[in-house]
Amino acid sequence: MNNRGEFSTRIGFILAAAGSAVGLGNIWGFPTQVASNGGAAFVLVYIILAFVLAYPVLMAELIIGRATRSNMVDALGKITGHKIGRATGVWGFITVSLILSFYAIVAGWMISHCIEALFSFLGQDAASQWLITQSETRNLLFCAIFISLTASIVVGGVSDGIEKWSVRLMPTLFVIVGILILYVAMQDGASEGMRAYLLPDFSKITNPDLLISAMGQAFFSMSLGVGTMLVYGSYISKNENLPSLGVSVALVDIGVAILAGLLIIPAMYVAMHNGVTIFNENGVLIEGSNLIFAVLPELFNTMGDIGNLVAFAFFALMIIAALTSSISMLEVPVAYVVESKNVARTKAVWFIAAAIFLISLTLIFNFDWLFGLVVSLTTEYSQPLLGLVLSIYAGWVWKRNEILQELKNGNEAAEHSFFWRVWPWYIKFVCPVIIIVMFVRSFF
């Protein structure tokens, strides 16, 4: 177990964990939720809920991971002392593998649109049209490319793979976002988008559905419940103060979501100024894949040649956001196979990557009925239930003195900290109730 690997620097872990949390949902879901639900008032509620719901569960995963120095299956087996714990770990890595299988398809679309912008700039119209037209061939090719990119990073291990690339990709993401924000802000219509995003409308935040949506956004945006943070936690040095590390990860994740809003919402209003439809038939801002693959490309088309360069930068940003999440997802099953089955890392990575690609292939050939079903089963049902079980394990099953001893590794005075006075009862009583409310709401 001494050869497991470890993050070599604090900033390396923060960027890797924040990269895991920063995914496509931060960029295509959060901004339109904000603009449709009270602007800056929603942002305030989201930040509060990120710390009252997501942060405690994030800390549960990090503490379990570092205390056990194990993959998800072995870690949950150790703290529960029971096969049920190990079964939960297996459930987690199956869930995260299924999420990665559809995530890779969507990320493949990002790659094809990024390349299309380049081909369009060069006047290769036939190739450009093929790259943005839905087809099984295109989807298979670019899904395979994305999974190969992910695997090639994870093969390097913790410090030479995950950390090395996270400290390169995350700053690149910030630079691209910053440049695009400045460019979009100078376009006609952007100021109206800024007002929709930044002016608070507190009348909307008393809506119970809105509050629960904000809870869901906070919980899922930090990629909780599926073991990514638990596995990353197992690679943290024993000298680090875990609660402060967790705060850093949460702040970076929130920061990226807010920056994405400063880019996406003004861009949508610029699109509207240029004659592009940005509201659906119910008067709600378009979000999700329709926003990314329909509304924004139409905007880029209205910009002339510079639009191709803006499109290239935007889809490069989306690829980076997807890649920093996918490497953490792939590491969950890889860590299990390497540690529990004694398989060499290179062989384990490519074997699991191939297996996930086969699942993606099945989704591509049965797209109309299977893709949405897998997305729904994993993100709406399996992920919150896993988060609930992890809260129960940390709050009710794992011995409090063992948790405290782990926290003391990075902070001798942990017993007298504000975190220790609040977190144990909070993860025991409050988090399970909130997650159950979210889960029940998803049925209605």
Automatic annotation (TrEMBL):
Q: Which domain of life is it from?
A: Bacteria
| Any GO CC annotation of this UniProt entry | membrane
Q: Where are the transmembrane segments?
A: 12-31, 43-64, 84-111, 139-158, 170-190, 210-233, 245-269, 309-336, 348-369, 381-398, 418-440
**Membrane topology annotation:** Multi-pass membrane protein
> Which cellular compartments is it found in?
Membrane
* Family annotation (InterPro entries): Na/ntran_symport, SNS_sf, YocR/YhdH-like
- Keywords carried by this UniProt record: Membrane, Transmembrane, Transmembrane helix, Transport
Checking NCBIfam families in the record gives: Na_transp (NF037979)
Return the protein name: Sodium-dependent transporter
Q: Which organism is it from?
A: Planctobacterium marinum
